[in-house]
Amino acid sequence: MKESKSMPTIPTSLLMLTAICMGAFLSHFTAGVIGVSLPQLTGPFQAEVGEVQWITTGCLLVITILLPFMGKLGDRYGHRLIHNSGYVLFTVSSVLAAMSPSLPVLLTFRIIQAAGAAMFQATNIALITVHMPHGKKGQALGYVSTAVALGAMTGPLAGGWITGSLGWRWLFLIHVPAAAAATLLALRYIPGRSREHSRSGDTGGKGSLTGDTGRQASLTGVLLHSPGVLSGLLISCAAFLLANTVLVVMPFYFSGEAGISPAMAGYMMTAYPILLALASPAAGRGSDRFGSAGFIAAGLLSMTAGIAILALALDKLPLWGIAAVLALIGAGMGLIASPNNSLIMRLVPAGHTGAIGGWIAFTRNAGMVLGAFLGFGALDGGAGAERYSHAFGAGILVGIAAIGVLGYGVRAQSRKRAPSETGNGTDRTLIGDRQKEA
């Protein structure tokens, strides 16, 4: 009876997951809405394109910088408090951004909005790890990845419609009702700090892979003595680097060499998020049951193979073939994201779940930034089809390196397991596992 009180009931946990997924959706939805509409914002503010671009790039940089810090704040003051405060800040700043009289004011409120997004992005994985029932965590993380994919897919479509039909202020207002609803759900159904402690249980550090004494262990020492955590973070960065290189480069190919309309290019690009959305929950369920390593390996192989096809034969592929390759890359990302996140969080001592959750989000955003630099750098450095080969050729090397990192993590982490602890389950044998929850 005591345990049932400390664990969310199934309906409550589903509503909690809905609240968390809504935030994951909204943060990527708003980025897509605004990103596709940047050219139309130069007129109202009488600004150059380079100035307007800070509306998106500045926001991304602020989120990336703040993620590890916000995760650590969640460990210290409660994941629920930081997460839900982020929702409130994100919602209020969205309304204020829509009322901005000038570009500097708009940029200020976008920075505040980015800080709110960093707060809930840094703590959502920790909340799932702490509060979702055992055996459901990987599947729940898969649904978060699906929400991310849906936000990335629908944001540009909504942004194009808004810029053609409504004023620019609606770019910042369109999501406010959903953000308000997510805030109310989060306040009602995400358990409080006392329940976080009762679910984490091991505040003394008994589940720590490093042998440190719980909360006194430094975050760096967790990282240095846990090859599974370190390799998982590197794999996360590499996967998002590969994905964002493709997402940055392919629209230029469609509008240039392929010569198709922007609308058709948009439909082609949806092959990636659709397969990501479909693969993530299935991979999450599978990782709960069979372990994460095999899914991550299959995902890295899929992404690397897709990148290699684009590098070697992009100009020879028909449009349906390009869509199939984008689908292959999206499926690969779906196979990686939730199993990799689930694996990392299994290896993290209870007192550091928020901090590592923030680092997971940091590596995701850092990978996206690096992928954008790689893609745009290749486009600026060449002409014709050759420049696409340069970008994707570099991606092949990143994919191969990520596969090597996975192999290192598997071997190194398995050596850390005592013989008495290695016997059941793929992750317990190859990667290691945190204490089983009741």
End-to-end span in angstroms?
13 Å
CATH topology annotation of the largest domain: Growth Hormone, Chain: A
Q: Can you give the mean pLDDT?
A: 77
Output the helix-strand order: HHHHHHHHHHHHHHHHHHHH
Region (Disordered): 416-438
Keywords: Membrane, Transmembrane, Transmembrane helix, Transport
Protein name: MFS transporter
Transmembrane segments: 51-69, 81-99, 105-128, 140-162, 168-190, 233-254, 260-278, 290-313, 319-338, 359-379, 391-410
Protein architecture, described:
The protein has 438 residues and is mainly α. The chain has 20 helices and no strands. Helix 2 runs antiparallel to helix 7, helix 6 (79-98) runs antiparallel to helix 7 and helix 13 (227-255) runs antiparallel to helix 17. The chain is globular and about 55 Å long.
Topology:
Elements lengths: L1 H5 L3 H26 L6 H4 L3 H4 L1 H24 L1 H20 L4 H29 L5 H29 L4 H4 L2 H14 L3 H8 L18 H6 L2 H29 L6 H8 L1 H20 L2 H21 L5 H28 L6 H28 L4 H31 L10 H6 L7
Helix pairs in contact: 2-7, 2-8, 2-10, 5-6, 5-7, 5-18, 6-7, 6-10, 7-18, 8-15, 8-17, 13-14, 13-16, 13-17, 13-18, 13-19, 15-17, 16-17, 16-19, 18-19
Main attributes?
438 residues, mainly alpha, Growth Hormone, Chain: A, 2 domains, 20 helices, disordered N terminus, disordered C terminus, MFS, MFS_trans_sf, transmembrane helix, transmembrane, MFS transporter
Task: Summarize, please.
By secondary structure, the chain is mainly α.
